[in-house]
Amino acid sequence: MNELEKDSRRSTKSIAKDLNIPRATVHERIRRMTERGIIKGFTVVPDFGKLGEPVTAFILVSFLANNNISQRELADKISRLDGVHEVHLISGEHDILLKVRGESMERIGDLVIDKIRQMDGVGRTLTCTCFATVKDE
User: Fold this and answer.
1) Which of 12-16, 59-63, 81-85, 86-90 has the lowest mean pLDDT?
2) Which among 20, 31, 46, 107 is placed 20 to 30 Å from 116, CA to CA?
3) First to last CA, the chain
4) How many CA atoms lie within 13 Å of 136's alpha carbon, on the beta-carbon side?
């Protein structure tokens, strides 16, 4: 698993050589982990700065329960907004944690003010700007 996390493009032959085990064993282990759901998929990690979205922010959302929408439904609606990259249901003072990206803080502000805060079920938000990312998996 660690070898795939480093670079999922590596061939089973290359991984087998580094681990000093047969290629067929590596292939079988990957197949079993995929079947069991341990590996959910293989993906690309883009450089969002080069894609025009250099600004990352985290938004804490408080769920307002006096609506005709559940917390899960609200999270699902938010997840479909452009610029929203992660949505987590959490415990504590806030109920939903978002990871968003945009071309500027102004665009992220537009997302929060014009879209997220206008949704039924959103009580209040708290936006935290990311200065730098040390680790992103």
Assistant:
1) 12-16
2) 46
3) 14
4) 13
Rounded-to-integer distance, Cα 119 and Cα 132, Å: 29
**CA distances (Å), 62 to each of 42, 54, 84, 107, 134, in order?**
33, 26, 17, 21, 27
SS3 102: strand
Q: Could you give the CA distance from residue 61 to residue 63 in angstroms, rounded to a whole number?
A: 6
Fold entry, domain 55-129:
Alpha-Beta Plaits (3.30.70)
Quick one: tokens of 1? 């698993």
For residues 133 and 137, give the distance between their C-alpha atoms in angstroms, rounded to a whole number. Answer: 11
Helix, coil or strand: residue 35: helix
CA–chain centroid gap for 16, Å, is: 30
Q: What is the mean pLDDT of residues 77-88?
A: 97
Residues constituting the chain: 137
The predicted-structure confidence for 19-73, as pLDDT tens digits, reads as follows 889 999 888 888 898 899 988 888 788 889 999 999 999 999 999 988 789 999 9
